[in-house]
Amino acid sequence: MRRALVFSSALSLILLSAPALAWWDGGHMQIAAVAYSKLTPEAKAKADALIKMNPDYQTWVAGVPDDKKAQYAFVHAAVWADDIKDPAHGYTNDDDTPTGQNVGYADKNMHKYWHFKDVRFSTDTTTFPNPDPINAVSQMRLFIAALPAASGATDDVRSYDMVWLLHLVGDIHQPLHATERFSAINTDGDRGGTR
Description:
The protein is mostly helical. It has helices at residues 2-16, 25-38, 41-51, 57-61, 69-77, 80-83, 136-146, 155-172, and strands at residues 119-122, 179-182. The protein has one domain (23-182). 45% of the residues lie in helices and 4% in strands. The N and C termini lie far apart (45 Å).
């Protein structure tokens, strides 16, 4: 009887568990929602003004009540760096030409490699190159330095940097965006677990 109770309890927990949102859109948005709730009213006003400059802003707030638009846009901005990987956005896959440029929305590269700060390893002695020095951490430093108005960066650059920063903060907390396994099967690496 006791064994049946333990088994049925364990089975119930498995069947009733919801899928984890991890770091897909829902995970990024939850991180951004928490961040937005922690901002002072002055910081929110500055962030809101910069977020409005994103080319997708009107799409994010379409149909949203006026009193919720700022928060809604901030939360949706956290996934923009993944959204631009869709060919419909018109961005270029530039994985072969890493660059740490910071030119604002005129930059039409996807910068897929910005999403990671990987410690590389192999469990089967597959050799691997040193990681590129341009990564999530190097870009976060660049973006943080440009965010203050006193930085001299244009508002376009500061808006672009804020949107990327919102996304990268979520990415660097994802365990699979912190390691990259090389193997006989993935001689170019597993791209932080995405391959």
